[in-house]
C-alpha cells in the first residue's frame, strides 16, 4: 500500500517539481538576483513562520496519529469532533496572529529580517509581507483537510494541492508581475494558497467530511493533540529561527546573495519533495496504524525497507547535483536578469546543500516514525540541538565561506540529526534490522561512487555544450548507476516493483 501510494504521490510531486522549477525559472528570469527578489524572499519568512508553528507540520504531525487512531477503531464521531475543533482553532489562532503581524510588519523587518538593507527595501519587504500574511490561515485550513484525507488513504487530491499552489504563483509571474512588479508576484502566492485549498474539496466530499463550529479545548483528544504539538512547535521554532538568522546574515553580504542562496535551497528541495516527502507522506498513515496496533515487527520492517529505498534514490541525485551544478543552473536559469555571476553564486551554495540531500530525506521519514509512535519530544529535542549547531556553524563559516558556509552548516547539522534519530529509533523499536537494509544502502553507495567517477571527467564538456551536454551527462550518470545496481543485485528494486505492480 505504501509503495502504490508513494508512486501516485511521486508522479504528482514530479509534476509539481517541474512546475516549481518552471516557477523559479520565470521568477529569476524576470527579477534575477535583484534587491527586489531579496525583499520578496525575506518577506516570506514571517508568514512561513506563523504557518509552520501554528498550523503546519507541528499540527499535522500531532493531529494525524490521534485522528487515525479513532478511524482504526471505527470511532467516526470522535474523529470528526476532533477535526472540527482543530479547524476552528486554526482559523481563529492563525488568522488573529497574521493580523497582528501585518500591523507590526515594518518593525519586524527592521529588527529581525533585514536591518542592514536601505529603508526603501525595508518598506518594500514590509508591504510584500502584508500581502503574503493572507496565506497562513488558508494554508492552515488546507493542511488539516490534507491530513484528514491522508488518514483515509486518499492521496490524489492532497498530491494535486501543491501543483495548484505552483500554478497560482506562475499565473502571478506571467499576468500580475508585468503590471505590479514584485507585488504581483506576492499576489500570485495568495492565489496559489486558495487553489491549494479548493482542489481538495472533492476529496472532502468523498470521505463524507463533517464540520461543526466548536473549539473543544476541554476535549481529551484536543488536549492530546496539543500535548503532542507543543514539543514539535519548539523544534520547528528552532528551524524558523535558523532561517531568520540566515536571512539576516546573508542580507548583510550585499544584494543578490539571499536570492541565490534561496534558489540553491529550492533546487535541493525539488528531489526531496518529489521523493522523500512523497514516500514519507505515503508511509505516515501506515506507520501510525502499525504503531496504534502495536505491531512492532511490521513497523521495523516497513521503516527499514522504506529508508533503504529513500537513501538508494537520493545518493546518486545528490552526487549528480554536486558534479553538474554549474551546467544545471546555467541551462535552467541563465537568461534575462539572471547572469553568469548569479549562476556562480547559486552554484557555490548548491554544492553544499546537495551534499545533505540524503540526510534531509532520512530525517523526513525518521521524524514521522516518532510521530506515529506519539512521540514528538525526541525528534524535537534532536532537531533543536541540530538547529542550534546550524546557527553556530553559520556564524562561524559565513566569514571565510560567505553564503556557501551557511549552506554547509545546514548539511552538517542535518546529517548529525539523522544519525542521532536513527540510533534513538533503533533503541525505541529494539533494533531496526540494520544488517538487512544496511547492506542495500552500502551497495547504493558503491554504485554512486562508480557513477561519480565516470561522470566527473565529462563535467567540463557538459558545461560547454549547454542543454545537450547536460542531458547527455544526466542520462550517462543514470545509466551507470542503474547498471552498477544491477551488477550488485540490489534487492530494493525488486521489492519496489513487487509492491507497485499488481
Short description:
The protein has 502 residues and is mainly α.
Can you tag this structure with a few keywords?
globular; 86% helix; 22 helices; mainly alpha
Task: Describe the fold and architecture.
The chain has one domain (about 1-500). It has 22 helices and no strands. It has helices spanning about 1-30, 35-55, 55-70, 75-105, 105-115, 120-130, 135-150, 155-180, 180-200, 200-205, 220-250, 255-290, 295-325, 325-335, 340-355, 355-370, 375-400, 405-430, 435-455, 460-465, 465-490, 490-500. Helix 1 runs antiparallel to helix 12. The mean pLDDT is about 85.
Structural class: mainly alpha
Count of spatially separate domains: 1
Low-confidence stretches: none
Helical segment tally?
22
The counted number of beta strands is 0
Please compute the radius of gyration using only Cα atoms.
Answer: 22 Å
Largest sheet report: none
What fraction of the residues are assigned to beta strands by DSSP? under 5%
Could you estimate the helical fraction of the residues in percent? Answer: over 70%
Distance from N terminus to C terminus (CA atoms, Å) equals 11 Å
User: Which whole number gives the mean pLDDT?
Assistant: 85
The outline comes out as: globular
Q: What are the secondary-structure elements, in order, as H or E?
A: HHHHHHHHHHHHHHHHHHHHHH
Amino acid at each position: 500500500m505504501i509503495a502504490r501510494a508513494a508512486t501516485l504521490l511521486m508522479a504528482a510531486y514530479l509534476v509539481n517539481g517541474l512546475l516549481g522549477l518552471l516557477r523559479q525559472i520565470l521568477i529569476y528570469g524576470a527579477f534575477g538576483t535583484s534587491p527586489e527578489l531579496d525583499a520578496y524572499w525575506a518577506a516570506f519568512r514571517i508568514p512561513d513562520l506563523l504557518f509552520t508553528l501554528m498550523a503546519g507540520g507541528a499540527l499535522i504531525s500531532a493531529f494525524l496519529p490521534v485522528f487515525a487512531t479513532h478511524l482504526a477503531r471505527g470511532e467516526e464521531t470522535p474523529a470528526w469532533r476532533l477535526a472540527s475543533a482543530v479547524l476552528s482553532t486554526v482559523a481563529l489562532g492563525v488568522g488573529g496572529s497574521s493580523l497582528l503581524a501585518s500591523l507590526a510588519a515594518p518593525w519586524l523587518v527592521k529588527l529581525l529580517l533585514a536591518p542592514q538593507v536601505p529603508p526603501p527595501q525595508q518598506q518594500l519587504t514590509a508591504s510584500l509581507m502584508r500581502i503574503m500574511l493572507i496565506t497562513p490561515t488558508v494554508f492552515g485550513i488546507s493542511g488539516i483537510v490534507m491530513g484528514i484525507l491522508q488518514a483515509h488513504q486518499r492521496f490524489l487530491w492532497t498530491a494535486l494541492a501543491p501543483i495548484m499552489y505552483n500554478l497560482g504563483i506562475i499565473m502571478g509571474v506571467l499576468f500580475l508581475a508585468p503590471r505590479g512588479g514584485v507585488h504581483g508576484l506576492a499576489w500570485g502566492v495568495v492565489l496559489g494558497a486558495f487553489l491549494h485549498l479548493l482542489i481538495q474539496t472533492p476529496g472532502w466530499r468523498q470521505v463524507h467530511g463533517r464540520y461543526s463550529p466548536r473549539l473543544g479545548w476541554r476535549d481529551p483528544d484536543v488536549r492530546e493533540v496539543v500535548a503532542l504539538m507543543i514539543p514539535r512547535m519548539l523544534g520547528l521554532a528552532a528551524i524558523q529561527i535558523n532561517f531568520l538568522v540566515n536571512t539576516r546574515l546573508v542580507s548583510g553580504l550585499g544584494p543578490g546573495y539571499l536570492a541565490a542562496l534561496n534558489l540553491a535551497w529550492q533546487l535541493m528541495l525539488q528531489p526531496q519533495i518529489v521523493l522523500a516527502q512523497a514516500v514519507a507522506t505515503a508511509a505516515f498513515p501506515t506507520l501510525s496504524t502499525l504503531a496504534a496496533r502495536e505491531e512492532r515487527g511490521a513497523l521495523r520492517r516497513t521503516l527499514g525497507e522504506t529508508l533503504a529505498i529513500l537513501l538508494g534514490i537520493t545518493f546518486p541525485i545528490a552526487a549528480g547535483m554536486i558534479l553538474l551544478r554549474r551546467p544545471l543552473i546555467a541551462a535552467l536559469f541563465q537568461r534575462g536578469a539572471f547572469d553568469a555571476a548569479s549562476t556562480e553564486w547559486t552554484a557555490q551554495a548548491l554544492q553544499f546543500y546537495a551534499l545533505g540531500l540524503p540526510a534531509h530525506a532520512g530525517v523526513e521519514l525518521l521524524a514521522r516514525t516518532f510521530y506515529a509512535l506519539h512521540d514528538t519530544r525526541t525528534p524535537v529535542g534532536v532537531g533543536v540541538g541540530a538547529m542550534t549547531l546550524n546557527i553556530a556553524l553559520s556564524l562561524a563559516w559565513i566569514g571565510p565561506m560567505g553564503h556557501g558556509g551557511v549552506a554547509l552548516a545546514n548539511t552538517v547539522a542535518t546529517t548529525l540529526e539523522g544519525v542521532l534519530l536513527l540510533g534513538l529509533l533503533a533503541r525505541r523499536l529494539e533494533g531496526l534490522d540494520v544488517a538487512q537494509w544496511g547492506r542495500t544502502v552500502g551497495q547504493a553507495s558503491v554504485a554512486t561512487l562508480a557513477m561519480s567517477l565516470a561522470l566527473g571527467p565529462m563535467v567540463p564538456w557538459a558545461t560547454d555544450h549547454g542543454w545537450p551536454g547536460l542531458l547527455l551527462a544526466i542520462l550517462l550518470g543514470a545509466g551507470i548507476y542503474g547498471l552498477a545496481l544491477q551488477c550488485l543485485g540490489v534487492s530494493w528494486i525488486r521489492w519496489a516493483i513487487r509492491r507497485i505492480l499488481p
